[in-house]
């Protein structure tokens, strides 16, 4: 192919303009990984032989966002199924004894639910305000509809036996 002749006044300084270089592969195909020559295309010629419209960035990001939201919903349903039927839990302090560096507290925890489960109980001194002065204790698994008695060590309530209040929460 020959270039049209331009009048000398219209010719750029330095002579005729060279043709733009051929496009080189710029990125991999989103489907197969082969090099793609067109920077605006997401698929290579093998994956898109009919040169159909390429997916837009909005479509790709929308699909990714939908996948993340769907995954969170699936996790929430699975968590609900795993925890449904446990609790409510009620705790009772049976005894408090001094121990090296703290107190040994004997608790009975009742699981009023239909499935076995563990819970977290917060122990505070009687008459103390709710706040950081207390201990959290993870219970062993409590069978459904029954009681479990166990002894645990707490270090935040001092070393002298005091009256202890326990509050167990459902998961």
Question: What this model shows, in words?
Answer:
With 171 residues, the chain is an alpha+beta fold. The protein is built from one helix and eight strands. The longest helix is centred in the middle third of the chain and has 27 residues, at 57-83. It is elongated, with a radius of gyration of 36 Å. The termini are far apart.
Q: Total strand count, please?
A: 8
Largest sheet: 3 strands, antiparallel
Q: Low-confidence parts lasting 5 or more residues at pLDDT below 50? A: none
Radius of gyration: 36 Å
Overall mean pLDDT: 81
What string, H for helix and E for strand, traces the elements in order?
Answer: EEHEEEEEE
Number of helices: 1
Structural class of the helices, strands and pairings?
alpha+beta
Order of strands across the main sheet:
3-4-7
What are the main properties of this structure?
single chain, 171 residues, alpha+beta, Immunoglobulin-like, 2 domains, 3-stranded antiparallel β-sheet, 1 helix, 8 strands, 16% helix, elongated
What layout of secondary structure does this protein have?
Elements: E1 27-28, E2 35-36, H1 57-83, E3 89-99, E4 102-111, E5 120-125, E6 135-138, E7 147-154, E8 164-169
Antiparallel strand pairs: 1-2, 3-4, 4-7, 5-6, 5-8
Concise summary:
The protein has 171 residues and is an alpha+beta fold. 16% of the residues lie in helices and 29% in strands. The strands form three sheets. The protein has a three-stranded antiparallel β-sheet with strand order 3-4-7, with no helix packed on it. Strands 6-5-8 form a three-stranded antiparallel β-sheet, with no helix packed on it. Strands 1-2 form a two-stranded antiparallel ribbon.
């Amino acid at each position: 192919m020959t270039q049209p002749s331009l009048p000398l006044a219209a010719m750029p300084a330095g002579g005729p303009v060279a043709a733009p270089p051929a496009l080189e592969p710029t990125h991999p195909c989103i489907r197969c990984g082969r090099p793609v020559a067109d920077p605006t295309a997401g698929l290579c010629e093998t994956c898109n032989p009919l040169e159909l419209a390429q997916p837009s960035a909005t479509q790709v990001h929308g699909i990714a966002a939908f996948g993340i939201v769907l995954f969170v919903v699936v996790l929430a349903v699975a968590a609900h199924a795993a925890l449904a039927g446990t609790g409510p839990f009620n705790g009772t302090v049976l005894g408090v004894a001094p121990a090296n560096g703290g107190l040994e507290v004997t608790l009975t925890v009742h699981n009023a639910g239909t499935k076995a489960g563990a819970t977290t109980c917060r122990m505070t001194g009687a008459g103390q305000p709710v706040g950081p002065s207390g201990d959290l204790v993870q219970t062993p698994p409590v069978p459904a509809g029954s009681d479990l008695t166990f002894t645990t060590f707490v270090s935040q309530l001092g070393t002298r036996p005091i009256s202890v209040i326990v509050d167990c929460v459902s998961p």
